[in-house]
Amino acid sequence: MLAPYLEGSVASVVAEERNSSAVAEVLGAEQMSKSGDSNAAAALKRITGLTVVGGKFVYVRGLGERYSNALLNGSSLPSPDPTRRVVPLDMFPTGILDSMFIQKTYSADMPGEFGGGTIQMKTKSIPEDFFLKLSLSTSFESGSTFATGHTYKGGKYDWLGVDNGRRDLPSDLKNATAGDRELKQNNIVFSNGFTAEEIEQFGQAMPKNYDTQEKSLPPDFVISLSTGNSIKKKYNTFGYTVGLSYSNAWSNEAREKREFSVEGEDNKLVENSDSNKETTEQTIDTSGILSLGAQLGDHHKITSTTLLIRKTSNSTKLSNSENADNIFRSTELEWTERSLLTQQLAGNHQFDWQQSINLDWRYAYSKAVRYAPDFREYTYKLINDEYIFSDRGDSNKRQYSDLDDKAQEIGLDISFPFKHIGDETTLKFGAALVNKSRDSKMRTYTFGSDSIPSDIRRLTSLEDIFTDENISAEGFRLMEITRATDNYTAEQDITSFYAMIDALWTEQYRITGGIRNERSSQNVKTFKLFDPSNEPIIADLSTSDMLPSLVATWFIKKDMQIRAGMSRTLSRPDFKELSEAPYTDPVTGDEKRGNAELQRTVINNVDLRWEWYFSSNENMSLGVFYKKFNKPIEESLSKLGGDAFISTFQNADTANNMGIEAEVRKDFSFLGDQYADYYVSSNVAWIRSRIKLNPEKASVQTSNNRPLQGQSPYVINFQLGYDHFEKGINASLLYNVSGSRISEVGTIGRPDKYQQAFHQLDFVLGYKFKENLKFKFKLNNLLNPAVTIKQGDKTTSSYHKGRKLSLGLDWNL
Asked: Is this structure's pTM higher than 0.85?
């Protein structure tokens, strides 16, 4: 029988948590719907001990994204982020997910890269009966909707999140610089370049699309359509699910930022720069999923899942900055397309030979792409009360970057009962082969000049400055400023084998233990792009690890149990973190350099949790955990000379992470039947971590003994809800807060920067006023506090997210 479509209900979630052999949290489709969260990252902040940083990356138990791992239907995923291996979870709309299983204790059948936990996302399964669902919604955000924002001329398919080539390099320039040929003028010592006339033609061919324009921002819009069915023929069942979604959202953000230096013996903070940045961003999300399934008799099932997710960001940023000597006005225009395509095939087969044998196999191919064409940045300088186009070398930039990240995985798991140990014992064996590859490219150009008349620089429009007449050998010249080491390729092979045992004794004790052998080989080649010898800078890291795990469960009563777990796991450096070549992070714009001497981090984990399941949809738990890190990887600053610094990475000596987690789900039926439809759900996590840096490697960091970067000392979630099935009404008031965490490590005597606690309060209402129609209403961020970052007693950054009102309608057939 194919799985029913309502797997993600609260009752099934509680049952899955209870029956799991690991310490785990489960977030079902019903819970995600009631919280009104639109993507996986937003939904996961409701889970005990989880925080979301930057709206994309999930920190499990206060540990950074490098210590979390995301799987889709059991398979690894590539990342469209050129400097991170973890896929941003804001890419996954909750509408395609049936549940998310957050495993916090390690088991040998999981990948060895396990720090805070592993997030297993499960797409919707094949339905038992035909369904058709259409959802429409719109949102209004304070400070954004109907407010004046800024944008620029784009392409005719921008509304689909697809650039039509308007932002691409001109074809003549692209063809001329193909094969990693540098755009450079011939001279006495360099003859593989171009003539002055050719460079002039290339410069004149560059699109003249710099100017911004005001726009009244429309409301957000979301539409999704899904359908599915199953067909039964004799002993076989075939089914499908198809889903499509599209959303178009706008936002305005005004952010203040200040930078400080230290002066005097008491390291007093003194402001040395101040800036205000206004950002208008359009986000276009599209996704499609096709699931096919075949149940062949009672013992064989084959499924195919094809998923395409696209997330496009189109932003215009206007900033004014001031330091001790100058005042600048800068503009940034950025278009970024992120996409993830994954194809998965999986099978489950049961064989009744001398004993029942269960065989599971899977194959997955995934490709993540980041396409960021024609990022434009330019600056004007205030001179004599008049803004003039700056003559600094970095006054204008046009950047083109591409990333392809691929992952292939083959896995096989075999399990069967073993009657000689315990009352119910299952042995499980498996193997997996994962290959990951990445190709990251970037080219950067600028218009340079020796001497341009001031009357030209006074023009307020850059499109009037970079005219064909002004682009010449004597005027503005197109120049390539690509750093030769901004381009790299990388590959990783991981081969793993494991064995596990899951034994139940006298219905009171359950032991789940195993060991995993994981071998990894990483290779990063950073090309000296314009070096005639083209000898790459190569970094390698090969490791082999035995990773044991053990979880014991004591069933105190029928509805109460205690779990204890111990394991050893690891975390490997990301590709670019291994390369000594300096590079520009295309996401942040920061200058960075890897470290070829980085080693993988080994983590020892201990968990203990008491759980009480007092009904099918009610439970309570209290747990503690401790993690010991050997050689954790941390980002730091390294001094290049003088006042110049560069971000790099190092292995700290040790670190630890410990905490307490508590959770409760309870309705109010104990007060009387009239209160049975009211419920409360809450979880709290208190977390403490310390990292100890090697003083010889600490370089310019202010503190060598501090909390882990990004770790919040506490996380609180609270939900008060009402759910009346017969009336078709559900309502929830949701509160979330995470404590202040280090957003940037302090250097040169300056304190660490801390993002302050942010208190979010949401209200969600659903009303099914007809059998097949449901109205949805949501208020986001009712409190609307400032997002604030402090350095010591000084505020370095502050902005408001804005309140949001969402209205929606679901139609089901």
From this structure: yes
